[in-house]
Write a structure and sequence with these properties.
two-stranded antiparallel ribbon, 8 strands
Length: about 200
Amino acid sequence: MPNVLANTVLSPSAAGNGDTLHADSDTEACEIDIDFRRTQVLFGADTDDVIGKRDVPELTAGEANEADARMLQNCDIRNRCEFIAGDWASIEHELRRQGREHSFDLVLTSETIYDTDSYKSLHDLFACVLARPQAEINSLNQQVPAVLVAAKSIYFGLTGSVLTFKQYVDARGVFDVDSVWQSGGSMPREILRLTWK
C-alpha cells in the first residue's frame, strides 16, 4: 500500500524505545498514548521519571510534527505513510489544494466519532482521500481501499457512538460500513471498516 493516512501510529521499530501498550482488563483492548510517546521522543526516554503519565504537557503542532518525523525515521513505512493532524475540513481543503484526492489506500483513525457534529466533515474527508478501487479486483492479494475507525461503542455524556456513526454512514450512501472487531467487557470497543459502495 503506497499511502496511509493515520492519526495514531505505533511502529514495530519503536517497541524497543520504551513504548508500552496499556491494557485495560475490562475491555481487553490495548492503547498507546501517542502524546506521551511524542513527549518521550522529544524530551528523552527518561520522561517516565520526570513527568507522570497524567501530566503530559500539551505539545505545539510543530513539536508534534517533529516527534512524528522522528518516530517514522527508522520505520520501514516512513515513505508510505504520514501523520496528518488538524480539523477535518482543513485537512480536506489542504489535500484538495495539493491535488491529492483519492490518494490513500488505507485510512486509520481512532476516537474520532464521539461527537455527531463532526460526522459530516470526517465523512467528507474520508470520501476525499480514500483511493477508488481498481475496476476489477481479480486477485486475492489485491487490497481494497478502506477506512478503519476504532472507537468506543458508546461515549457517555457525548453525542456520538458506533451506532450513530454507522447510521450516518448508511444514510449518506457513499460507503459500506461493517464492524470487523468488537471487544467484550464493560466498556466495549469496535473497529469499523468503511469501503466504497
